[in-house]
Each structure stands twice: as C-alpha cells, then as structure tokens.
Write a structure and sequence with these properties.
CATH class of chain B: Mainly Alpha
Oligomer: heterodimer
CATH topology of chain B: Methane Monooxygenase Hydroxylase, Chain G, domain 1
Radius of gyration of chain A: 20 Å
Number of strands of chain A: 0
Helix content of chain A: over 70%
Structural class of chain A: mainly alpha
Structural class of chain B: mainly alpha
Number of helices of chain B: 4
Strand content of chain A: under 5%
Shape of chain A: globular
Number of helices of chain A: 6
Chain lengths: 164, 117
C-alpha cells in the first residue's frame, strides 16, 4: 500500500506541470513541461498498480508524442518562438470551459454506481494481457499492425507532399 | 509496489543532486561577466542568425517513423514478458506482426524518409 502522501506529491507536480504547459509563452517550454505532466500521470498509474499502462505512458507519451509535438512546433513555427504560445491570452474563457468540463466529469464520477470488484489485482497483469493479446484477440492484434502500417504510409505521403 | 521505492529514491536523489550542484556552484563561483563571456558558444565559431530556426520536414519523418515503432514496442513488451511460456504459435504471430510493420519501414526507406538531407 502506497502512502497517500506520495499520491498528493505526484498529483501536485502533475498539476503544476500542466499549468506550466498552458501558461508559458514559449511552446517548446510548454512541450517540455508536458513531458513532466506525462511522467506524473505514469507514476499515478504505478500507484494504481497498472504497471503496463505506466510503461505505455512513459514510452509512447513522454517519449514519442512529446518529440512529435516539439518537431511539429519547430516545423510550423511562425515569428518569434518566445511568443509562440498565445493561447494563454484566453485565460478567462479557457478557465471557464475547463471548470465546466471538470464539473461535468466530477458529477459523472460521483453519480455513477461503480461496480466494485473485491477480487485482488492479478500479480502479473502484463502476462495476462499477453495471453489474451496473442490468444483470444490475435486478429485485432494483427489488425493493429495493419493500422500502424496505414498510419505510417499515410503520414509519409502527406509529409512528402509538404517536402516536395 | 515496494519494488518501486528504489526508483523513487533514484528520482529524488537525481532531482536533489541537480539543484544542489547548481546552488553550490552559484554560491562559490566568481562573477565577472563580460560581453565576450556572455556570448553564445557555438563550437568556438562566431554565432550566426537566431537560435530558433525552422526545422526541415525530414526531421519530422524520423519522428513519425520513430513513433510507429515506439507503439510497436508496446505490443512487443507483454509478448517479451511471457515469451518463455508461449509456444511457437505466439512467436509466429509476432513475426507476422513485425513483418507487417517492416513493410512500412521498407516504404519509408523507399520514399527517402530515412535520408538525412
């Protein structure tokens, strides 16, 4: 059992990082803070004993998505990068929409009748996942490969168009 | 969960180490700035143009290819964990999975997405 203190520290760091993402004026700095927020979420998954999800969060989000965002920013940049994140001019509207979204989510979470499973969390959740992935769900697994292939080919075709 | 305690200690030590080094260096170093000293270091040459330049689109292609194979790693990970327990069938399944993605790599290669310039 993890001390709640750990969760509160991690949650605090994640929220500070998320606030830095929207409030900093340099989009590159925002992207770097986004990595901190992603890692914070990954540690939250670890606290919830969802190790595989934590690994996915670190490898895909903190690794690849962050790089993609930085590259995307540097490719589409217009004018001075130090003044690139101008969305924080909409503080009031953004804050109101975020508050509304949070209120909706909190209401849904509180109102939902959660079916609580009292069984223990399986010790080896990754192994269980592998068994299902390569056993019962092998066709969706191979289709996922096709999906990735299509995404790769499509992205290259679009990027080639831009380059030429 | 206890096995991650060491990881947490590593994280804290790494953060504290960075802060301590910067603070101690700030306290003990002499401060005699001159324009020469404050100029940006760029391999010993005079700097040219602004620091923030626009990237070439070819860098984005690397990022795309990296992203796809990064996602592939996610599928490899549970398979690798259980590899010893699975038979030849799971191995063939994974070979097919990787084979489909190698087609993508071949296409990226053919279209010059992996070329540096």
């Amino acid at each position: 059992m993890v001390s709640p203190l750990v969760f509160w520290i991690v949650a605090g760091i994640t929220i500070i990082a998320a606030l830095a993402v929207v409030n900093l004026t340099n989009l590159i700095h925002s992207a770097l803070w986004l990595i901190v927020a992603f890692v914070g979420v990954a540690i939250t998954y670890l606290i919830l004993e969802a190790e595989f999800l934590a690994a996915v969060q670190i490898i895909v989000y903190a690794g690849a998505i962050a790089i993609l965002i930085v590259f995307g920013v540097m490719l589409t940049r217009r004018g001075d990068i130090r003044e690139s994140n101008l969305f924080n001019n909409y503080r009031l509207a953004g804050g109101l929409i975020s508050l509304g979204l949070m209120a909706t989510i909190v209401t849904m979470v509180v109102k939902t009748q959660w079916a609580i499973d009292v069984a223990a969390v399986p010790a080896n959740s990754v192994g269980l996942l592998a068994q299902n992935l390569l056993g019962q769900f092998v066709i969706p697994f191979e289709i996922a490969a096709m999906l990735l292939l299509v995404a790769l080919v499509g992205a290259i075709i679009i990027a080639k168009e831009v380059r030429d | 969960m206890e096995q991650y305690l060491a990881l947490g200690i590593f994280l804290v030590v790494a953060l504290v180490f960075g802060v301590v080094v910067l603070v101690v260096a700030g306290l003990v170093r002499p401060k005699k700035p001159s324009p020469e000293k404050l100029s940006t270091y760029e391999c010993g040459l005079e700097t040219q143009g602004p620091t923030w330049v626009q990237f070439k689109i070819s860098y984005f292609m690397y990022a795309l290819v990296f992203l796809i194979f990064d996602v592939e790693t996610i599928f490899l990970y549970p398979w690798a964990v259980q590899f010893q327990k699975f038979g030849i069938f799971a191995f063939v399944e994974m070979i097919i999975f990787i084979g489909i993605l190698v087609v993508g790599l071949w296409y990226a290669w053919k279209e010059g997405a992996l070329e540096w310039l």
